[in-house]
């Protein structure tokens, strides 16, 4: 029986981070079960995807150099099934996709494509929020206008449709694979059992879903006031904070760990005109995927959006709610600054203690005699020969003085 390589290429905001967290956390147990998820660090497959597609990403592309070839080699060498997963792979060109499939293929191997999909009406606001979490400053109205422009001329539009246009992604990635090796995993509607999406992925990957208890869903959404607060903060941090500090302090600590998923905050949706446009496009996509005969894990009906709901505009928000979110963010950052200050004080105390020990060492007669010998050796060739003999006798390293 052929081994399988399951290549999960997105799309973003379809539970990908949640699934990757489970695979990374339990990779040792999975390997015992004959399933490889090769990752020495949580972002290993992200870096490999950057390398495959040669994407610039705030300097991380330099760190990513060579990681795709290394991952592909490890997958080819493993005798059992393997999973490769990252959502930015959805934007790969046809040539990059064909290279990925070729690199992962081999004798006795079947490469399977996995695409997780959610209805477009939910994806649009989620993608704007993701843009904001990556330092973008574009308003929601401008973002939606870019996406509805048939020219798709802006960077935002090109990225969005590259990672979200389901038929096109499947054209690029599935061109060399038979339909029965292309799997579309649909994201359940709101209100479904919280484990249902994991059960769908696990069944496809050949994993017992009950063996691994999913934790909290990763990458929770921001509410409307939190999103607008962050967008405004991005404007102020534009020339102030380097990317690596933004990732750790703002995106991870403030947003993901504290502001995301706050209860009582208005959820972001679509204005009525954009909802009608997106809903029709989503229906067209679902029908197209149904005609292609792919293996569907779930139900294509879940790609058909629900009706419109009351719209809360992030471009004209409740300013009191935005201010409350900003104060919460300030409180979080103040607490973090206090912790860092405590560490700084402790480090200064350690440094002072070490300096005191060094001063005490310098005051000893033996050290002072050695310093005089070193100074003499620098001035006198005969003394230099004697000092060299002393070092050999002591067995000192060349770094010693």
Question: Helices and strands in order, then pairings?
Answer:
Elements: E1 3-8, H1 16-25, H2 27-32, E2 35-36, H3 44-53, H4 60-64, H5 67-77, E3 81-85, H6 94-104, E4 109-117, H7 120-133, H8 140-148, H9 155-164, H10 166-174, E5 182-186, H11 196-205, H12 224-237, H13 243-259, H14 272-292, E6 295-297, H15 319-362, H16 365-379, H17 381-394
Number of helices: 17
Oligomer: single chain
Percent range of helical residues: 55-70%
Main β sheet profile: 6 strands, parallel
Question: How widely separated are the two ends?
Answer: 66 Å
Mean pLDDT: 92
The ordered H/E elements are EHHEHHHEHEHHHHEHHHHEHHH
As for the number of domains, it is 2
Biggest sheet: strand arrangement: 2-3-1-4-5-6
Strand-residue proportion: 5-15%
Contiguous runs where pLDDT drops below 50 for at least 5 residues: 397-401
Quick structural gist:
The protein is α/β, with parallel strands linked by helices and 401 residues long.
Q: How would you portray this structure in words?
A:
The chain has helices at residues 16-25, 27-32, 44-53, 60-64, 67-77, 94-104, 120-133, 140-148, 155-164, 166-174, 196-205, 224-237, 243-259, 272-292, 319-362, 365-379, 381-394, and strands at 3-8, 35-36, 81-85, 109-117, 182-186, 295-297. It has 401 residues and is α/β, with parallel strands linked by helices. It has a six-stranded parallel β-sheet, sandwiched between helices.
């Amino acid at each position: 029986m052929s081994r399988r390589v399951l290549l999960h290429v997105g799309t973003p905001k379809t539970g990908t981070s949640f699934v990757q967290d489970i695979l990374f956390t339990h990779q040792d147990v999975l390997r015992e079960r004959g399933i490889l998820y090769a990752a020495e660090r949580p972002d290993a497959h992200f870096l490999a995807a950057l390398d495959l597609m040669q994407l610039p990403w705030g300097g991380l592309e330099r760190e990513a150099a060579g990681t795709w070839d290394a991952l592909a080699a490890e997958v080819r060498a493993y005798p059992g099934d393997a999973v490769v997963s990252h959502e930015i792979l959805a934007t790969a060109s046809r040539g990059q996709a064909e290279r990925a499939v070729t690199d992962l293929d081999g004798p006795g191997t079947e490469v399977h494509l996995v695409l997780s999909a959610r209805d477009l009406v939910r994806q649009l606001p989620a993608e704007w929020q993701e843009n904001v979490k990556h330092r973008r400053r574009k308003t929601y109205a401008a973002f939606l206008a870019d996406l509805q422009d048939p020219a798709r001329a802006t960077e935002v539009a090109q990225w969005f449709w590259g990672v979200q246009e389901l038929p096109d992604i499947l054209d690029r990635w599935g061109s060399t694979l038979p339909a029965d090796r292309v799997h579309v995993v649909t994201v359940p509607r709101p209100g479904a059992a919280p484990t249902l999406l994991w059960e769908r992925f696990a069944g496809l990957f050949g994993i017992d879903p009950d063996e691994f208890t999913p934790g909290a869903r990763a990458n929770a959404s921001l509410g409307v006031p939190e999103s607008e607060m962050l967008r405004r903060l991005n404007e102020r941090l534009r020339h102030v904070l380097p990317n690596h500090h933004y990732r750790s302090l703002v995106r991870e600590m403030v947003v993901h760990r504290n502001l995301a998923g706050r209860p009582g905050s208005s959820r972001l949706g679509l204005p009525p005109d954009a909802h009608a446009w997106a809903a029709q496009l989503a229906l067209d996509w679902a029908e197209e995927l149904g005609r292609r005969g792919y293996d569907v894990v779930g139900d294509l009906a879940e790609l058909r959006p629900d009706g419109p709901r009351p719209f809360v505009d992030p471009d004209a928000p409740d300013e009191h709610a935005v201010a409350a979110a900003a104060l919460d963010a300030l409180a979080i950052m103040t607490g973090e600054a206090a912790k860092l200050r405590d560490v700084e004080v402790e480090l200064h105390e350690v440094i002072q203690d070490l300096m005191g020990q060094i001063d005490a060492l310098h005051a000893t007669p033996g050290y002072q005699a050695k310093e005089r010998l070193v100074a003499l050796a620098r001035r006198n060739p005969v003394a230099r020969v004697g000092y060299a003999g002393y070092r050999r006798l002591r067995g000192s390293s060349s770094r010693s003085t």
